[in-house]
Every structure is written in structure tokens, then in C-alpha cells.
Amino acid sequence: MMAHIVFNPLLPWMVLVVLGAIVGAGTLLALWRGLAGWAWRGLAGALILAALSGPSLRQEDRAPLTDIVLLVEDRSASQRLADRAAQTQEAANTLAARITARPNTELRRIEVGDGPGDAGTLLMTAVSEALAEEPRARIAGVILLSDGRLHDLDQAPGLPAPLHLLLSGTPQDWDRRLVVKNAPAFGILGEDVVLTLRIEDDGAVPEGVQGQAEVAISLDGGEPIRVTAETGRDFELPVKLDHGGRNVIQFTTPEQDGELTGRNNSAIVQMNGVRDRLRVLLVSGEPHPGGRTWRNLLKSDSSVDLVHFTILRPPSKQDGVPVSELSLIAFPTRELFLEKIEDFDLIIFDRYKRRGILPTLYIDNVRDYVTKGGAVLIAAGPDFASADSLYRSPLAEVLPARPTARVFDEGYRPKVTDLGERHPVTAGLEQAWDGDWGRWMRQIDVTPERGQVVMSGVEDRPLLILDRVGEGRVALLASDHAWLWNRGFEGGGPQLELLRRLAHWMMKEPDLEEEALTAEAVGQTMTIVRRTLSETTGPVTITAPDGTQQEVTLQETSPGRFEAEYSGPDIGLYRLTSGDLTSVIGLGPAAPREFEETIADGGALAPVVDETRGGVRRLSDGLPTVRDVRAGRPAAGRGWIGLTPRDAYETRNVTQTPLLPPWLVLLLSALMILAGWLREGRR
């Protein structure tokens, strides 16, 4: 029970002060004039003033509240290295027993794991959330059991009590890690991409380990290449990408005896391979309305280097114009079709027919160019059905269809075949255009001999045929009226999207392969995608970084596309296998934050600890004792840490009794005034 006097004045304090001055002045005046009752009159005035101040006796029934101690246990990945987990668990249990044995004390144990994604250790966030749930006036101390490696120091709250950090690990700990300091997101195919790496040794590095270290570099899970690098210094490593799309590069340095972990001895870089420029040779035959469309389409892309070979005047034309005046310069046909043909990524024959301009030797060279990995696209017009057709040349050996010499000059709407619905060049093409497709007005009748018919036209006859020949690819478009879509005839159609996909497929872009196994990762979850022209596909075998294997069944999400999701338990390189197809993907960050720095250190938390007059101690030196300290005093010393008792309480009941009730004031003041009057009357 606590009691004290409180005042609740009936008048403002300033008014009471003025009245007090008047009473004092009147009393002094009475004293100066020699009035015998001045003391009684002064006491009566003082009593009235005291009554106006409203004095009361306040009695509180208080119940003491316990002090609260926060014990925050770091259970993040870096705390699972060596014997830190057991060391922390033992210290936490011992401290919990000591604190709960203290009188008037409660303990709150808080475990902090890895943050979401790659956020690291969020110790201060956990402390802030715990403080928000407890009355700050009851917090007697905060004790952190951690290696000191946290990643949210900017979230440190203002603490009302001492903060102590008890470090796990030992002073003898050391670790080696591989750091990728610079890795571009893109690399040009066939050119060196320079990556900057560094091997760092932290902690008590033993003699004989420093100096040099071996680094193994593996591209897409292939046979590693080994190089030697100096530790503690940046070194540059040139890497050459040999295919487009995602390239997965893994760097590894061997784990050394005694180091804390080998998890940070490897790093994964996923880099997209892109072409510098697409080199296209466009060979135009007889001029037609669609010729400009091809040229405009190719020239609109800044990444395309276009060489346009146009035949405006056949050699058979007799008009008397001197040969020297037919062109500004002699067209380098020999250079293009013999010497530098391998420099082109794609050759397009647009309504070209044999007129003796390109000798058979040049056509032979184009055929060989295809079989060795080149790409040829033929946009056929009526010339393809004539006696001068390219099919009547050595190029027939690589063409997927034979002309029947029949030409359909009638309107029709191109459509995607059932096989085309599964082929990446034409899959979903109908959804890529808002509205119905416009008609084309001409189609060359061809008989497929090989390849895949992905679009059809008049009476379901083949319109677009794709084929692989040797290492190269060939596409035959049996119409020269694709330009009608570009002109918006009857609403137009997806000409740009079709030709873009067609060109990229011929360039062997991984995203447009008919049979492909790919995966995209978000955090530790990958989405596996299997594209195939078949109606079914088998399971995918996943090989984890530790060598364990697991089969995953895929579900068809659209024609020719099968998907599944898989969450990898570990960070590292995963290998996917489906039949003859293989793929690799890295899960998790290239350098997880939990393993960037693994040596226990309290330097980052030292300013926050010092601000509360707490202490940083190593568990390897022994568990400190716990004692009470007054607020504002040093809360840590040799072998001990302190808690500040808060003396918090809960008020259960309050009683307030007036000390000068009105009736008593009136009675006493009247008696005093009467006494003063009687005293003065005797004189």
C-alpha cells in the first residue's frame, strides 16, 4: 500500500498565489498596526487557502510486476557451422535456468532462423518485434546468442535495458570463400567475357594454407578446367560462351582441412549468351510487292547486318545498255558465295530463280553451307514451280519439299497444323494476333519429302515446312504473299511474329527448339519446362548437388509444353535429364549472405551494445554469471553480465480522501476569526 498527498485546486494556481499575497499583506498590516489577533486572522486565511488547493490523501494498492529478459537465439545457417549449434543450445539452456531462478523475473526465448529469400540473419528485426509485444517498462535486459553476423543492423531499436552479445565459435576458427566480384548478365557468343573472382581467407588461417589455391571452372556441368590463383587478390578469368540462352558457369575451390565450411567454396554464375549481330544475306529475284517488306523487316532491326543481292535486270535482256553502266560497282558474288558465305547466319531466297547469274558452283556452296550448320529460308513464288526453280539445282538435296508445278491463285486463310500447334515456331501464333487472319492470294503446290509441316493453306496443302539438314536448318514458305499481312489486307496477320520466330529458330535459339528441356528458378524453386512434338513425355530425373536423384512427373500445360515445379533443398547446381536431353540450373544466390562472412565477430553490434552499457563476451571463454545493476551503470564486467531491475508494478485500487472537507474548514476558520476578535476585544 502506497500513500501520498495530491492537490486538486478549486481555483487556478495563479489565483491562489494572488490570494496568498493578499492574506500575507493583510497579516503584516495587522502586525504593523499592533492588532493582537493578527496571528489568528493569518491562520484563518492560510487555512482557507489550503482548502482551496484541494489537498487529498491518495492511497494505491500496488502489485509488483516481474522483470522480463529477452534471450534471442540465432539459429541461422552460419550458426550451424562446426559445433556452434550445440554450443549455443547449451548456453541458452544454462542461461534460461539461471534467469528463471531469479526472483521476480520472466524469460522470453526467441529463436531466429534464416530470413526469407536471401535476407540473411535478421536479429534486430526479431528484437524489435519482441519489444513491440512486451511492456518496455518491464524489460530488464536483452541477451543475444549469435556469431554476430547479422544483416539488419539498421533496424536496431532503442533499448530500455542493457544489451549483451555472447559470441559462438572459437578464436581458432578460419574459413576460405570464393567471391565473384564482377559477372556480366550477358555475354556475346564467341567472344571472351571477363569475370573477376577473389579467394579470401578469414580468421586464424593456419600456416601453409595461404598463398595459392586451385579453381575449377565448369560450363553447363561439363568437364571442369582448372587454374591456379593467388589468395587475397582479385584475378580476372576470361570465359567464352558457345551457345545462346542461359549458360551456367560454376567455380569451385577445394575445401581445406580445418575450415569452417565448404559451402562458400563454390559460386554459380548464370549468364545469357547473345549474338553480337545477325548477319543476313537476302537474295531477291524478280521484283514483286513483297520484296520491300522483307527488306524493311530486316532493316528495322538494328541487330541485323543485311546484305541485299537484288536482280533487277536479267542477263538475257537485250536493251543495249553497256555492262559497265549497269551498276556503280561490280557485285561481289564470288566473295559472298564462296569466300565469306560462312560469315552469314541466314540466307534468304525471295522469289529467286536460276538465270545463270549464280553459277552451279555457288549453289553447291550454299548447299554445303547448310549441311555444315547454316540456315536457308526460301520464300517461294511462281518461279519455284517453273523449270528455273531452285529445286532444279544442287540445292534440291537440302530442300524439304518438291514442287508439283501447280500454282493456286485463289484466296485462302493460312492456318496452323496440328503439329504446328506443338512446334515453338507456330505454337500460340493464333493468340498472338487480335482478330482473324487476312487471306493470302497465292500458294505454290509442293509435296513434302521430309521435315515438319507447321502451316497449311489451300485445301490443307503444305504452306510452311521446317527441316533439319546435317547441322543446319531449312525453311520453305510456299507463298510469296506474306506481305499482305504487313499491308493489313483484310485485317492483316502476325507476319512480324511469325518471321521473327522463324528466323530465331533457324539461328538455333534455345527458346525455339522443338525438343528442349529448360528450367527457370525463383529462390529455391525451379519451374521445369519440357517442350516436345510428341503427345507424351517421360519423367525428368533431377540430380541434386549432393548426388542424390529424384524423378519428377510433368503435366501438359499447352500443346507440346509440359511443366512441373520442384523445390531444391540445397543451394547449388542441379542437373536435369529427360531421355537424351540434359540441362543444368543453379538454385539459390551465387553467394548466400549467410556464408559471405562466417567468422564470429561482434564488431558490427559493438556500437549498439556500448550504447546500452552492455558487453560482448565469447562463449568459448565460459558462460558469464548474471547479476543486478542499477540503471545507467556499467552492465558488464570480467565474467559477468548485468540486468537492470525495473521495479514495475500494477495498480489494483486507488483511494483518495480529502484532507480538508468544507465543513471542517468553515468551522476552523470561524473559530480562528472569533479567537482573533476576542483577543483584540480584551485590549
List the topology elements:
Layout (H helix, E strand, L loop, with lengths): L1 E6 L5 H20 L5 H15 L2 E10 L2 E8 L9 H17 L4 E8 L10 H11 L5 E8 L16 E5 L6 E9 L3 E3 L3 E12 L8 E8 L5 E6 L3 E7 L4 E8 L13 E9 L3 E7 L6 H9 L4 E7 L22 H7 L6 E5 L9 H12 L3 E5 L21 E8 L6 E2 L26 E6 L3 E5 L5 E8 L2 E6 L5 H4 L8 H12 L9 E7 L2 E7 L8 E4 L5 E4 L2 E4 L2 E7 L4 E7 L2 E7 L18 H6 L4 E3 L6 E4 L7 E2 L2 E4 L5 E10 L3 H20 L2
Parallel strand pairs: 3-4, 3-5, 5-6, 6-33, 8-14, 15-16, 15-17, 17-18, 18-24, 34-36
Antiparallel strand pairs: 1-2, 2-37, 7-9, 9-12, 10-11, 10-13, 13-14, 19-21, 20-22, 22-23, 23-24, 25-26, 26-30, 27-28, 27-31, 29-30, 31-32, 35-36
Keywords: Membrane, Transmembrane, Transmembrane helix
InterPro entries: Class_I_gatase-like
Organism: Pseudooceanicola sediminis
